[in-house]
Amino acid sequence: MTAAAATAVKKSALASVQAAEQHVLLPTYDRYKVLLRRGKGVWLYDAEGKKYLDFLSGIGVNALGYAHPAVVKAIRKQTATGLLHISNLFFHDFQAELAEKLAKISGMERAFFTNSGTEAVEGALKLARAYAKAKTKTGKPKWRVLALENSFHGRTMGAVATTWTKKYREPFGPLMPGVEFVKFDDVADLEKKFDASVCAILLEPLQGEGGIHLVSPAFLKKARALTQKSGALLIADEIQCGMGRTGKWFAYQWSGVKPDVVTLAKPIAGGLPLGAILCTQTVADVIHPGMHGTTFGGGPLACAVAVTVLDVIEKQHLLAHNAELGAYMRGKLEALAARHAVVKEVRGKGLMMGVELRDAEAAKFVAKAMLDNGVVANRTHEVVIRLLPPFIVEKKHVDIMAKAFDKALSQWESQQQSPKKSAAKSRGGKG
Ligand SMILES: *Cc1c(COP(=O)(O)O)cnc(C)c1O
């Protein structure tokens, strides 16, 4: 086969997968036109052998990158025992070990394992309702939930009811009733909407999908004070910002506020599906056998890998690394902001950064151009380029990303400066 013919065959691999999906999958995603085949470290490789520097980590999941030796070893070891799954009717070696580690780093006392983020949020909402029922025998029912504007908590019926974006919620109504959204970081609005009928305040200490917005310590403290006084729960959704990404184990730890319940998922098992609900003993006291459960959640393979991921984060001092690399990345991004008028703001903490551009068209163009320039990032909340690199990222990788980002911004600007030329080009392309 000639090189050209080989390329044609490989190219058709993407085209044929794409065509096949169009016939059989629910059309929920408009994917990037890349067929991934392999990953190593911070690099991804597509079916044509093109490599990409990954600054998205499969949306904040692949904390140790791809093919990390410790993760590969843990998977090999556990699969060799034959026990991928045993159900929660039996014991295995890793749930208690993982729960103990998570309790130690979070200040919580109990854990329940799920398969995903949305299930962790769903379970946390159930905990809040059960807690309120158990603790308030008389008086006004306590059942409402306050969430924040621009929140994202998942796609199942309860979690999606607490998710701000209308297009995620409205087609599926009626949703779980009793949810109200508080203006982002607005203490006065929180005080106005909070009353004795609220069973939980649910928030991401650092919002992810909503465009990388950090909740202020003042707001967290007010949420803590109000819930504490009335006997409602404060639930921190740390699914995206937790497990060390911001430079502390959990983003709430920057404020000194301790929640009653913490939800985890994305990076916890280095790419395998696993989530967790962590809570205090007081909250755990209202749960009895049979009240909640899961078939797959907390299986031996995912838990064994999660224990390994935690070990690596600890032993490699990745919290300090994430803080340091985050500061380095912020410097690079702020330099871009100074050079390019289309950049409005740089936000975030540690390895969770967002760069807000002036409009959605620019953000769409820039995310695509970065991919063409060999760097994976993504556009969230219409106008924000989101960067969630693996924890193993190094300064030289940040430099490569910043260069590709710079180039993409320049490409956007030169296209804007010659609108006629590019309009003619795109017309020509279509004709
Ligand atoms: C991704 C995410 C979820 C949902 O997690 P899934 O695993 O996709 O169900 C919930 N909350 C936050 C903050 C998230 O980033």
Description:
The protein has helices at about 5-25, 55-60, 70-80, 95-105, 115-135, 155-160, 165-170, 185-195, 215-230, 280-285, 300-315, 320-340, 360-370, 395-415, 420-430; strands at about 35-40, 45, 50-55, 110-115, 145-150, 180, 200-205, 205, 215, 235, 260-265, 275-280, 345-350, 350-355, 375, 380, 385. The protein has 15 helices and 17 strands. It folds into three domains: about 1-50, no CATH class; about 70-315, Type I PLP-dependent aspartate aminotransferase-like (Major domain) (Aspartate Aminotransferase, domain 2, 3-Layer(aba) Sandwich), CATH 3.40.640; about 315-430, Aspartate Aminotransferase, domain 1 (Alpha-Beta Complex). The model is unreliable at about 420-430 (pLDDT under 50). By secondary structure, the protein is an alpha/beta fold. The strands form four sheets. It has a seven-stranded mixed sheet with strand order 4-12-11-10-7-5-6, with helices on both faces. β2 (about 45) and β3 form a beta hairpin. It binds pyridoxal-5'-phosphate. Pyridoxal-5'-phosphate binds near residues 117, 208 and 240. Pyridoxal-5'-phosphate binds near residues 116, 153 and 266.
